[in-house]
Amino acid sequence: MISIQFSVKDDLRRFATSTISPLYEMAASIHALTLSTPHEHHLAWLKETRDLLIREQLEEEWLYFAPVFSEVVPDILSLPYIERFVTMEELFEHLVHLSPLEFARSALAALRQENRRNKELIYPVELDVKKDPDLVKSRLTLFVSSYWHIVFEPQWSGIVPRLSREVETINACLHSNRLGDYLSSISSQMEYDEVSRSILIANVEDVQASNPIRSIVLHPSWFASKPVEFSKQQNKIHIIYRISPVEADRA
Q1: Axis crossing angle, helix 100-117 with helix 59-69, rounded to the nearest 10
Q2: Are the C-beta atoms of residues 222 and 248 closer than 8 Å to each other?
Q3: How far apart are CA 51 and CA 206, in angstroms?
Q4: What is the pLDDT of residue 209?
Q5: 33: CB partners within 8 A, 6+ apart
Q6: Which of these, 162, 140, 139, 142, lies nearest to 150 by C-alpha position?
Q7: pTM higher than 0.70, yes or no?
Q8: 84-107 as b/e: b if 16+ CB within 10 A
Q9: Which residues contact 232 (CB under 8 A, 6 or more apart)?
């Protein structure tokens, strides 16, 4: 369990922040496309996108990389790894300059998740990563760039208002000192203890006492693969959580 304490003088608007990353949403949407049983509120979007991949002749590349995205978003495209990137051009540069060794590590780690489910299958992308990771990295970079410009970016305008409304809700909770209530609404793993002024997060490894959590970053997501996911980075904890249409459309 993690216990995050803050004093009565703490301004929660400094202690907790919220961000939306279209680049992460793009990567998470590629993962969503691979799911055999997708979430209900993604169904219409997924059908439209799969049809678009076929029309734009991107289906072959999507199928080639699908095993890398089938169980997880590879960590080189995940939050908080790409949190600092705002534009596709920045992400493109990141992938271009990523070392083949780091790319292979990330891709093979994602493939090991897939191999746990399909132990007898060996995918072409796995063989290629082991043989020539730099070539596969270049191929993924081009696919992600094409997917962004042709598929995701035109559809992003329909998704961002839902996420923006959630950010407004978060800001309202911070302004009215109701962060604990909001966190509890996200997941039963989190609760706010008014006596100790602590946020308690169950079933998550604690951090070393020398590196206490100093801030929280909330990442409401439309395409996140899990209802809630925690990622620690030094003295900051990222909370990535999937919102539903009901949550997204609330006032």
Answers
A1: 80
A2: yes
A3: 44
A4: 47
A5: 46, 49, 50, 53, 62, 66, 69
A6: 142
A7: yes
A8: ebeebeebbebbeebeeeebbbbb
A9: 205, 207, 213, 238
Q: Please, are residues 161 and 169 in contact by the beta-carbon 8 Å criterion?
A: no
Tokens 């998740």 correspond to 113
96 vs 117: CA distance, rounded Å = 31
Residues in the chain: 251
pLDDT for the residue 36: 83
In the 8-state DSSP scheme, what is residue 86?
-
Is residue 72 a contact partner of residue 225, using CB atoms and an 8 Å limit?
yes
Mean pLDDT by 10 residues, the chain (251 residues): 65 78 95 88 90 96 96 92 91 94 96 77 93 97 96 91 92 82 86 76 62 83 90 84 68 39
User: Could you give the C-alpha distances from 73 to 25, 82, 140, 205, in angstroms and in order?
Assistant: 10, 12, 13, 21
Q: What is the pLDDT of residue 10?
A: 55
